[in-house]
Amino acid sequence: MATGVAAWLPFARAAAIGWMPVANCPMPVAPRDNSKRQDELIILNVSGRRFQTWRTTLDRYPDTLLGSSEKDFFYNEETKEYFFDRDPDAFRSILNFYRTGKLHYPRHECISAYDEELTFFGIIPEIIGDCCYEEYKDRKRENLERLQDDQEENKDMKMPNMNFRETMWRAFENPHTSTMALVFYYVTGFFIAISVITNVVETVPCGSTANQKDMPCGERYTVAFFCMDTACVMIFTVEYLMRLFAAPSRYRFMRSVMSIIDVVAILPYYIGLVMTNNEDVSGAFVTLRVFRVFRIFKFSRHSQGLRILGYTLKSCASELGFLLFSLTMAIIIFATVMFYAEKGSSSSKFTSIPASFWYTIVTMTTLGYGDMVPKTIAGKIFGSICSLSGVLVIALPVPVIVSNFSRIYHQNQRADKRRAQKKARLARIRIAKSGSANAFLQSKRNGLLNELLELTGTEEDEQKLTKSTSLLESQHHHLLHCLEKTTAHEFVDEQMYEQNCLETALQTYPSRSPSISSHDSSVGTCCGRRVKRNTPLPNASTPSAHPIPTHQGPLQELSAIHIQCGDPPSHSTSRSNLNLKTDDSGRINCKGGRITTAIISLPTPPALTPDGDGLHGPPQRRPSAGTNIVKVSAL
Amino acid sequence: MNLVTNNHFVSLSPSLHAGSIADEGELSTVCYRPEGLDRLVQQTKFSKKELQVLYRGFKNECPSGVVNEETFKNIYSQFFPQGDSSMYAHFLFEAFDTHNNGSVSFEDFVISLSIILRGSITDKLNWAFNLYDLNKDGCITREEMTDIMHSIYDMMGKYTYPSMKDSAPMDHVDSFFQKMDKNNDGVVTIEEFLETCQKDENIMQSMHMFDNVI
Predict the structure, then answer these.
(1) Domain chopping of chain A, boundaries
(2) Might you report a single GO cellular component term (chain B) (predicted)?
(3) CATH label, A38-157, candidates 3.30.2290.10, 2.40.50.140, 3.40.630.10, 3.30.710.10
(4) pLDDT at A536
């Protein structure tokens, strides 16, 4: 039922009284309206701005949020109003929809914000009134195109697991992604140019030899040109085959316009190779050479402007078709007229209607070669009418095509601009966001350091390091921590991960450290600490994280076994915990051989590394800045 | 809409009814205001609140204050999407337009509604008779009844079960006359109508069906 006229339902029901005396059978029972609600004012508080309306107004559209019982979820008992935490400006048009039955789209509103509001309040955008619908649709389409453009950018992003074929395809499609691709791009461009120039120069008369008159260069230096041609065709063939190989969908690639151009460009050569002996078809062979000029279309891969032109022509197909059709009509009409007008005059060039076509075309396009001229007066009159109308007919569809081209061109420019800005934008966003991503890791370190300090007991340091985290943050971190505990894995940041991957690629070691004495201690140190840490502080972060407030991050310790130079006592105390170490390493199946691998590296200067020993003997284990830490390779 | 200001406005100018009709040539913006709320309460059997609700709905659909036949038909057709309700809406409009000036003002509307919904059974039957009597000459002829019947059946539309036979309205007219026309003179007078209806249980019952519509 039309909900807009719900207010008139009582009237329609009352008017049914006209059927009663006429009816022959009893009527069904009417539904009782038990909840005889008086019409009341409802207050809708939208972000502080209060709107008031009648309940019946909202009830008009029961399939929306405000018209159904869904709004009860937003009811505020204390203030006796419905509170919505949404944009009050957009809400105006939504409420007006209930009042007037027509939904309008305010032009100053952002399209996606408006869409969201509509979705929130359960109103479908299709009921936007005719006055605003077109605008709405246009903006929506624009927005969609923009988003699509952005998505296409993402294809540029290098995915970590691309095989050779995909890399090649990506290199072909976007030459700026790698140096090789760029080189390839320029080389092919160069050869296309060479090929085209060769074709052109071939036909230039090259000066005469002693015995013959002027002949074109192609015939004089046949071998040279043939070699040039062969070379170019070789390059093009190789390129085509490589593209075919790399294409994700070979069938689709073969159907695409560019590949057809490629094929057409190189085919004449091969056909020529095959057919040189046969004399009858040599005529056809000569024609084939014409197709070599299609090589110039290969440039469209290199030039965006050409592509835009082609796309414009494609999108203006209907206008072009109309132009063609109207021209044909006019040509036929005027040719006929001219033919009959000039029939009388002697030595008239207008021998037939088709012959007059040439005159008409030349006149309508205002070329006026002058090879055919009307001589009779009637002919001249009609000739002038013809040229005048020609101007009109041609001038009409051209602006449409021009405006289309302009629109697409500007769109492309905007896309390029966006692409250029995008990198910088993303970089800045990433910097801003990385702060929060690292917050968890940061707080882990701080948390551990705090625990460390608690045990060591230095108050002022503890206070220095305690960062104030909000309740939200701490809850979030706790959540992440629980996840870590559940999966027995840990969060790391990107650099750490990649480094670990690298290291595991170098050498992986399940667990054989006990055999190397120099390792024992260090490993024991690490793990001993880990174990030790586990017991007194069950809520601490997983053992593998060392409280290192350096930029190096926690896991670097895991991937490298550090030996703190000049600290013998540390070994002894932790030897007892050696056997527990394997459990640890088994338990913590971290990313690759975190625990066991190590790389020899020079001392890390800013390493304020309280390398784990801190727990055992508090003060003297506290690392001093600049302690030499030597990472020992597992080998 | 604020109740308070409405009241104030109405009580300050109790018997205001403007009727500013613009020039013939220009777009006629007829703006009609109803008589005071209190007077309407007296004239009809509706309470103040009911009249307020009714007026708000009325004014919302017809901001100019009067309904013309087009709007009337339009509104009514929205309730019967399957069939063609224009004829019946036309007859209704004629019945509502008591002053015969081509438009239904709020008073006409509300007075008729009052009769239909709150009137006595005799009033209701009278109103129904008035609806059927197209030329308002006091009796219902066969032609008039046929027209009415066709208009009612038209509202059903094409897709009915069992499928609509063309003779269905005529048969119904025949049965109606058979029932109502006591002296078989081919017309049904008001007395015959009232008498027959009051004897018929079904009709009596159905007349009371819409008492609680508002």
Answers:
(1) 38-157, 164-302, 308-431
(2) voltage-gated potassium channel complex
(3) 3.30.710.10
(4) 40
Residue carrying the six token digits 């309008």: A104
Tens of pLDDT, residue by residue over B8-23, are 433 444 444 444 444 4
Query: Is the link from the previous residue into B162 a cis peptide, with omega within 30 of 0?
Result: yes
H/E stretch holding B68? strand B66-68
Q: Taking CB atoms and an 8 Å limit, are A4 and B176 in contact across chains?
A: no
Domain A308-431, CATH 1.10.287.70 — does that match? Answer: yes
d(CA A110, CA A113): 5
pLDDT tens-digit series, residues B167-188 = 888 888 888 888 888 888 888 8
Res A365 pLDDT > 80: yes
Contacts of A14 in chain B (CB under 8 A): 113, 116-117, 210, 213
Q: What are phi and psi of A614, to 5 degrees?
A: -50, -35
Q: Do A39 and B49 touch (CB under 8 A)?
A: yes
Pairwise CB contact (< 8 Å): A21 & B125 = yes
Rounded average pLDDT over A564-589:
41
Q: Domain B34-118: give its CATH superfamily.
A: EF-hand (1.10.238.10)
Are A30 and B210 within 8 A, CB to CB? yes
Single-letter amino acid code for the residue at A313:
L
DSSP string, A536-551: T-TTSPPTT-----ST
Q: What is the mean pLDDT of residues A85-89?
A: 91
Q: Which among A13, A22, A26 has CB closest to B149?
A: A22
B1/chain A closest Cα distance in angstroms: 7
Find, among A540, A529, A515, the residue nearest to A562 by Cα: A529
Identify which of B54, B172, B210 has the shortest CB distance to residue A17. B210
The backbone torsions φ and ψ at residue B29, rounded to the nearest 5 degrees and listed phi first, read -105, 85
| In chain B, domain spans | 34-118, 120-213
Q: Which residues contact A36 (CB under 8 A, 6 or more apart)?
A: none
pLDDT at A280: 65
More confident: A326 or A583: A326
Using a CB-CB cut-off of 8 Å, the residues of chain B touching A16 are 210
CATH class of A164-302: mainly alpha
Homologous superfamily (CATH) for B120-213: EF-hand (1.10.238.10)
